[in-house]
Amino acid sequence: MTDKRSGVVARVGAWIGVTSAAITVILTVLNGLISNRIQEAELNISRQAQVQQEARDRISRYTFVQALLSDLAEESTSQQELITNLIRLALTEDEANRLFGGLEASEDSTISNFGRNAGAIQRRAEIYDLISQLDSREQHQRLSAATQLVSEYASDPMAIERAVTQLEMPRLAGLSADGRVNVMVYLSGTTITGWSRALLDRASDAAANIERRDQDGIAVLGNITRDRLSTLVTHLGRVGDALR
């Protein structure tokens, strides 16, 4: 009897152990599933909150822009330029372009003129930003700006004038070696149609000044900069021949 009883107890104990282990596994799996569901729910809530916040921000930005445009007809030219820059700060680049394009297409002359002027200000700001990126600390920004300027603004007098300004004092003194090289690369890639005689004279004077500063030991050029300067001088010579 004792042996039978011991066997029964052993079997019951083993069964209880197996059952406990199975229950532990099941509970672990359930806890994991519940935890995952909770995390998914929290993530969805977070995403929904982000979408709602973005919608509120967008409405707030649009309301601000609407307020700026409400008294447009009564504003002076300088005030309209300030309004344009405030709109550019409030909207994304795509939103601003679409807004100014829509205003320019208006049948109301005041609105249409503002849209046209705002578009020009937007374009000027984009050019100035690209020119400034030629001297960025980040290499990819410098290369990207130079590539975009050559591909999109090779014939643009405003972009060319802004680039020439970078090679003139006092801006020249603040340019890094990379900045000088990138400005020269862009100017060397411009087309003749973007140049005027006055602009060519300024660029030629700037190049001559850079050469003098190098010869006088004021700002000694590296080999790469010297090569780029030589390429630029040659390009300016071709432009000069074409403008005669």
Explain this structure to me?
The protein has 244 residues and is an all-alpha fold. The chain has three domains: 1-70; 72-133, no CATH class; 139-244. It is 82% helix and 0% strand. It is built from ten helices and no strands. It has helices at residues 2-69, 77-90, 93-104, 109-133, 139-152, 157-166, 171-174, 177-188, 197-215, 223-243. The radius of gyration is 34 Å and the shape is flat.
Proportion in helices: over 70%
Portion of residues in beta strands equals under 5%
Q: Figure out the total of helices.
A: 10
Output mean pLDDT: 86
Total DSSP E strands: 0
Topology pattern, helix = H, strand = E: HHHHHHHHHH
Describe the structure in brief.
The protein is built from 10 helices and no strands.
Q: Keywords, please?
A:
mainly alpha, 244 residues, 82% helix
Please describe the topology of this protein.
Layout: H1 2-69, H2 77-90, H3 93-104, H4 109-133, H5 139-152, H6 157-166, H7 171-174, H8 177-188, H9 197-215, H10 223-243
Helix pairs in contact: 1-2, 2-4, 3-4, 4-5, 4-6, 5-8, 6-8, 6-9, 8-10, 9-10
